Structure formats: structure tokens, C-alpha cells
């Protein structure tokens, strides 16, 4: 399989550090398939479960070594988990990957060049992207916004009591509070607004909502990479967690999870 280049391709991308791309993709592939949207302003990778949660990765052109998108409105459904596994084959940070796509119904082609000269080729079938979930998350309806460092929050999420089905989150101007209800009893962890982990707080209304624990645990890979998190809640309780990943040299990627709260009958 040869990797096409030139005007016959509508997507032509190169990334010198394939491990970096694999790490970002790992944060969102909680399902086998997802969508890839290509714009001249970057790539958006979207995975959702059809009902309760959606994850998005946003990669701007500076994240890549070379970035060319020659058509508008490119949207593909792809086996993203398999692509992640393919990108994870080489070890180290000195391997590169090239991505090529020639047009509708053609496969996405990837070519990994390892530092020792070994070449690995992959071809992944694409189809027309599904209609993605629209959470209608609007900045105008946000009631709470926290800007946090991820160091402590990462440990909190990792150590949630696995026997608790849900996590109750209480949002206020003075504190962000997490409560689990497991087999050993109730556990409460709080981060006060005066904490060094909390950089800023905007709160127009004190609210509390519960979320399924297994949905929150999907964010653990994003916590492992990110240095900062913008956590927002809208008036319906939809939780937005936007992770900022600093790759150095001014290159930043963003991961966002949108999560629907549980109904009271689920408690």
C-alpha cells in the first residue's frame, strides 16, 4: 500500500511524534467507533455512547508537523479504537506517522516510520459519519465554572469508591464537593475555593447533581495528560470537563467530555 500525496488527497497530515498522537486518542476511545472531522483549522475527533456522554479531542495544525486539508466539511466514521492500537505499536518518541485520505468511501491510510527504518502501514475503512449527539451546551446557560489544576483532582477521580454507582457533585462559590455512597458507607471529598488547586471560580447559583461513576472514570486518561481543567455545569446539570494538554513549544490540545446527570430515579 502506497500513501498518496498531492492534489489527489483531501487529507494529508504528518506527525513526527506518533506516541503523542496515540496518547491523545487514548483519552477519548471509550467506544470502538467514532467520528473524525477535518477542517483547515484542525481536527476534531468525537466519540459518544449514544445517550449519556460525548468526548471530543481538538487538535490544531501546530500539533502536527505538516497539515493539509483540501476540502470543506470532511466527516468520517472510523474504527478509532483500532487506529489507536495501530498507533501504539511503535515505542519511543522518535517515530513518525503520515495520514492520507483521498475522498468519500476511500479508506484512511496511515504509514508509521520507525526510527530504525521499519515501516508499518495500515488501511482503515471509512463510512459517512453518524449524526452526533447534540448536548446543546450553551455558554449562556452555564451556572458554575471552575478553573482547576488537575494534580489533586486526578487522584480524587482515580480513588472514587468503585462500589458506588454514582458520584454526587455539589457546586458552590466556596467549595467543590464529591460524595460517593459505597458498600463501606459515605465518602465526601471537598476542594475549597481557597485551595491552590482552584485558580478561579464563577458561580451564579449553588447546585448539585449526580453522575454515573463509570462515565466519570472514562476521564482518567485525560487527567493523566492534562495540566489544567475547566469544569462547567449548565442549568440542566450537563457537566462539561475541558482538559488542556500542553505538548511544549506552544502546542496545546484540548479534550472535552460532556456528561448528562442521572435522573433522581436512578439514585
From TrEMBL:
Family recorded in the similarity comment: Belongs to the rad1 family.
Name of the protein in its database record: Proliferating cell nuclear antigen
Keyword RNA-binding included in the entry's annotation: no
Keywords (A to Z) from UniProt: DNA damage, DNA repair, Nucleus
InterPro entries: Cell_cycle_checkpoint_Rad1, DNA_clamp_sf, Rad1_Rec1_Rad17
Assigned GO CC terms: checkpoint clamp complex
Family matches, as SUPFAM superfamilies: DNA clamp
GO BP: DNA damage checkpoint signaling; DNA repair
Taxonomic lineage of the native organism: Eukaryota, Metazoa, Ecdysozoa, Nematoda, Chromadorea
Localization per Swiss-Prot or TrEMBL: Nucleus
Chief location of this protein within or outside the cell: nucleus
Gene3D superfamilies per the UniProt record, alphabetical: 3.70.10.10
One Pfam family this sequence matches: Rad1
Organism the protein comes from: Caenorhabditis latens
Amino acid at each position: 500500500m502506497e500513501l498518496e500525496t498531492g492534489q489527489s488527497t483531501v487529507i494529508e497530515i504528518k506527525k513526527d511524534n506518533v506516541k503523542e498522537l496515540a496518547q491523545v486518542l487514548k483519552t477519548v476511545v471509550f467506544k470502538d467507533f467514532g467520528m473524525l472531522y477535518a477542517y483547515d483549522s484542525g481536527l476534531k475527533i468525537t466519540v459518544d455512547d449514544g445517550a449519556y456522554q460525548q468526548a471530543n479531542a481538538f487538535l490544531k495544525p501546530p500539533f502536527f508537523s505538516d497539515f493539509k486539508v483540501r476540502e470543506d466539511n470532511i466527516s468520517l466514521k472510523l474504527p478509532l479504537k483500532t487506529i489507536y492500537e495501530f498507533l501504539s505499536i511503535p515505542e519511543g518518541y522518535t517515530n513518525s506517522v503520515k495520514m492520507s485520505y483521498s475522498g468519500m468511501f476511500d479508506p484512511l491510510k496511515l504509514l508509521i516510520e520507525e526510527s530504525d527504518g521499519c515501516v508499518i502501514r495500515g488501511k482503515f475503512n471509512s463510512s459517512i459519519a453518524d449524526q452526533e449527539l447534540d448536548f446543546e451546551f450553551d455558554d449562556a446557560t452555564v451556572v458554575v465554572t471552575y478553573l482547576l489544576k488537575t494534580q489533586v483532582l486526578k487522584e480524587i477521580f482515580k480513588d472514587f469508591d468503585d462500589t458506588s454507582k454514582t458520584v454526587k457533585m455539589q457546586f458552590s462559590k466556596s467549595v467543590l464537593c464529591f460524595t460517593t455512597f459505597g458498600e463501606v458507607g459515605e465518602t465526601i471529598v471537598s476542594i475549597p475555593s481557597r485551595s491552590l488547586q482552584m485558580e478561579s471560580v464563577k458561580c451564579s447559583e449553588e447546585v448539585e447533581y449526580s453522575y454515573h461513576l463509570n462515565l466519570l472514570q472514562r476521564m482518567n486518561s485525560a487527567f493523566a495528560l492534562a495540566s489544567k481543567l475547566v469544569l462547567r455545569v449548565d442549568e440542566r446539570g450537563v457537566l462539561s470537563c475541558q482538559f488542556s494538554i500542553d505538548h511544549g513549544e506552544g502546542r496545546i490540545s484540548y479534550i472535552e467530555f460532556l456528561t448528562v446527570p442521572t435522573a433522581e430515579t436512578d439514585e
